[in-house]
Amino acid sequence: MNQLAEAVGFGLVDAAVIALAAVGLSLQVSVTNFINFAYGDFMSFGAYVTYAANAAGLNFFPSVAVGAAGTGLLGVVSNWVVFRPLMRRKSRTLILLICTVGLSFIVQNVIVMIWGPNAEHYSVTVGNALHLGPFLFTPGDLILIGVAFTLLLALHLFMQNTKFGTALRATSNNDDLAQACGIDTGRVVMWTWAISGMLCAVAGVGLALETNSLRPTTGFNELFVVFGAIILGGIGRVYGAMLGALVIGILTEISAMFISPVYSGALAFTVVIVVLLLRPQGLLPGRGRSA
Amino acid sequence: MLYFIADLLALGAINAIMAVGLNLQYGQAGILNFTYYTFVAIGAYVGAVTTMGHPPVPASEETFILQWSLPWPVALLLAGVVAGVLGLFMVLVVIRRLRSDYLAIVTVSLGFIVWDLITNYVPLFNGANGLFNVPYILNGATASEITYTLEVFGVAMVVLAVCVWVVRSIFRSPYGRVLRAIREDDVVAASFGKATTSSRVWAFVLGCVMAGLAGALLVFYVNAWNPQGFLAEESFILMAAIVIGGPGNYWGAVLGTFVFVELLSEIERYLPNFGNGALVGAGRAVLIGIVLIVVIRFRPDGLIPERWLRWYRVPAGGGQGGPAGFQSPGAPRRRLGWPRVGQRGEI
């Protein structure tokens, strides 16, 4: 029983990271309407920029902010250079998808060119594990969960209570109609890329902290778990993505108790496929596509 | 140098088989299969375990299933059949319910699952260590390296010729037209009474059979195999090469694969290592990414567009470049040649 509680605890930490990434990706997919295979590499990019800023002498939390800003900028630039011209031409989803694969090549291998293929570590320590009731957390884990919770709450308030949040939700619901209502959808799309880039940079840092190693492929390998979360939650639905992240995170940790942990990735993918086949609209009850 | 060219030819022919197969799936049927290399891997493993016999030294740690020692042509066909059957299972599960972009995610996920199983479950295919000591075909055990390379090239060319013939026949047949109609708009095709699901299923299976054949030839050629060669990245690069070369047109697919999958990696092998050791390989991937995006941006039909094929041409006055509903609804209608400013962006 104790073991189960610990697994749930680890699952919560996983879920915090996955939720950040999944919400960012879900936000972007809901607005731009295509799936981004480069998103995992954006995560690595954010983590590496954080690493570089930290190595250059900045404290850890300001470094994360630098990493987030850098990745937000990367998102905006790739939207500007790659996706905006294609979206204007009304290219098919398939073509945009292939473009994101090309972008993924570029980002991942530029990281290799700059920082090399070997694993890096952050110079921060996560502290000793401590028991909290039945759970087992390090202080680093707690901070991670806290940060994820705060960011997601802030995003929720931003989406529900600001004018821009409303515009974003309108654009994701129907961008032609939103445009007809006088919303500058181009600007909304740009800021969506920025916000989703920032979220995924924080997720990338969390991922690197949690696994205690940072490789150019770190984000890409996590990408499909993130896909799992957003598919579980219903593609393009931000709150569903949080739920999906929770399910995937806890499920993979609990499954590690019963089957060899090397198969936990395969298990997550199997869950994804089964859900996609049986309930393609996601776990939550049906509702219009909106954030 | 001579060996280099022979090697290039042999691998080129094998890669061309993959290109033709994947192009049938993506270029004709519009199925985005991001795990094509999984089927190549399956073909390779089947080709290996059906010809290797029992491990030569009982004490050697190799464990794998079957351990048959069939003649290689039978093994080759068997590899194609097994890859095709697995492709059939996979596509039957997913194709009915999913839109093309979710299909892409599912294919990648399935590839990861298969890869995880092969790498971690040792009794099946010797796990992450892969297989080695796969026997030579023909007189490879005694012939010189270059002769063997040329022999493999010859065999691969025969297989390639058969594959190209099959694909060409499909391209020109009513079935090929149905496939392309489904690719452009499956709802419209279905409303004309075309069997959209089964048409795509068979195109997918045929593409997988070709992957299996190519995989078996590859394993006969290099005599060893390892799951590390089948990462998702390989499938992505192959797909990128086809999009660059020109999906829909098998010549474009073959050209793209030759240049971007093979030539670049061969050149990479002969470049001196500098920087952090991975710089050259990373540079190749960055180059592929940039070319891919530039081609999609400025030449969306690829370097050798589909309409250069003879069947595409229609009699004079027969419309702009194809039968009605033939071009993607969003793509601007263009004549041959390079895009001109001012035409872009118009629908």
Largest sheet of chain B: none
Record the strand order, biggest sheet of chain A: 1-2
Secondary structure: helix percent of chain B: 55-70%
**Unreliable stretches of chain A, pLDDT < 50, 5 or more residues?**
none
| Structure summary, number of beta strands of chain A | 2
Fraction in beta strands of chain B: under 5%
Please tally the helical runs of chain B, counting DSSP H or I stretches of 4 or more residues.
12
SS-based structural class of chain B? mainly alpha
Oligomer: heterodimer
Helix-strand makeup class of chain A: mainly alpha
**Poorly predicted spans of chain B:** 314-347
- What order do the SSEs of chain A take from the amino end to the carboxyl end, as H and E? HHHHEEHHHHHHH
Level-1 CATH class name of chain A: Mainly Alpha
Mean pLDDT of chain A: 86
CA-based shape of chain A: globular
Query: Rg of chain B from C-alpha positions?
Result: 21 Å
The count of β-strands of chain B is 0
Offer a quick outline of the entry.
The complex is a heterodimer of chains A (291) and B (347). With 291 residues, chain A is mainly alpha-helical.
Give a description of the structure.
The complex is a heterodimer of chains A (291) and B (347). Chain A has a single domain, classed as ABC transporter involved in vitamin B12 uptake, BtuC. The longest helix of chain A is centred in the first third of the chain and has 31 residues, at 2-32. The termini of chain A are far apart. Chain A has 291 residues and is mostly helical. In chain A, a hairpin with a 2-residue loop joins strand 1 and strand 2. In chain A, helix 1 (2-32) runs antiparallel to helix 10 (238-258), helix 9 packs across helix 10 (238-258) and helix 9 runs parallel beside helix 11. Chain A is built from 11 helices and 2 strands; from the N terminus they run ααααββααααααα. In chain A, 75% of the residues lie in helices and 2% in strands. A two-stranded antiparallel ribbon of chain A has the order 1-2. The longest helix of chain B is centred in the middle third of the chain and has 28 residues, at 145-172. With 347 residues, chain B is mostly helical. Chain B is built from 12 helices and no strands. Chain B starts with a helix and ends in a 49-residue tail after the last helix. Residues 314-347 of chain B have low confidence and may be disordered. Chain B has a domain at 9-230. Chain B is 62% helix and 0% strand. Chains A and B meet through helix 3, helix 4, helix 9 and helix 11 of A and helix 4, helix 10 and helix 12 of B.
